[in-house]
């Protein structure tokens, strides 16, 4: 994509966001969004949240905004493909409760103080019949977050689009239903004193090619929509390229820790087998896995250094 096209897309996007904000001018007083170096931000949601986090775009912009004197907030991705408000893969996947505990335990484990939460896209495909269940499931999740004093940012979903392939059903027919689920999210936002970010906008270009999952090249569009509605005016991502690379490396390490490729070897029945216990020339698998934590912390300090304008120490991978 050429630089001119990128700049045009951003200019159009700004107009869309301002128009959206003006339409909500009659809402109650705005909740200010701030992060400190004591905060740990968690991300909950389905495939679009997984891909947004993998892209590093939103986390880069938030890190740039709130890092000072070589210290900034921490970010922990708990999202999982196909998650819904009532079913979090980080909790229900096999053997994970044995290793990380239940939903509330996991929030405590990572020290969550702020949560970005995005649900409703998959649930909206159930239509009106699923609204009450969605409200109940989402409320239960928000209750658990609030019990731990976690501040909330609720994201609506980007709209369904017509897929590029004529062989895939046209998902745009679910948009009327999606707006009803967005209304539930607005309602819950008021109930739980949460910030609500509206991503269900009339974008002037397609965000997806399958009708529901945002493409890698459009993740910055989504991220910038979010930060602008949070009241942050961020530079283009291309001007934060070093920070962006550092954030993506940190996320890679965190992902390998939080979602190891062979969880069965850690807490499943294979954990009792001899080849997982180490030997003369290699350490036990669980010990090797646990060594990712200091690597995540080191990568985090690199992120803060770059965000503070210091010399990039490099990823120093083992």
Outline the low-pLDDT stretches: none
Strand content: 5-15%
CATH class of the largest domain: Alpha Beta
For CATH, the homologous superfamily of the largest domain is named as SGNH hydrolase
| Topology-level CATH name of the largest domain | Rossmann fold
H/E element sequence = HEHHEHHHEHEHEHHHHH
Structural class comes to: alpha/beta
- Give the helix tally: 13
Mean pLDDT: 91
Secondary structure tally: strands: 5
Q: Tell me the radius of gyration.
A: 20 Å
List the helices and strands and how they pair.
Elements: H1 3-23, E1 40-45, H2 47-55, H3 57-66, E2 74-77, H4 89-92, H5 96-100, H6 103-110, E3 114-118, H7 131-147, E4 151-155, H8 175-191, E5 195-197, H9 219-229, H10 241-258, H11 263-267, H12 285-290, H13 292-307
Q: Could you characterize what this model shows?
A:
The protein is an alpha/beta fold and 318 residues long. It folds into two domains: 3-238, 3-Layer(aba) Sandwich (Rossmann fold), CATH 3.40.50.1110; 241-307, no CATH class. Helices cover 46% and strands 7% of the residues. The protein has 13 helices and five strands. The chain has helices at residues 3-23, 47-55, 57-66, 89-92, 96-100, 103-110, 131-147, 175-191, 219-229, 241-258, 263-267, 285-290, 292-307; strands spanning 40-45, 74-77, 114-118, 151-155, 195-197. A five-stranded parallel β-sheet has the order 2-1-3-4-5. Helix 7 (131-147) links the parallel strand 3 (114-118) and strand 4. Helix 1 packs parallel to helix 9, helix 3 (57-66) packs parallel to helix 9 and helix 10 runs antiparallel to helix 13 (292-307). 37% of the residues are buried.
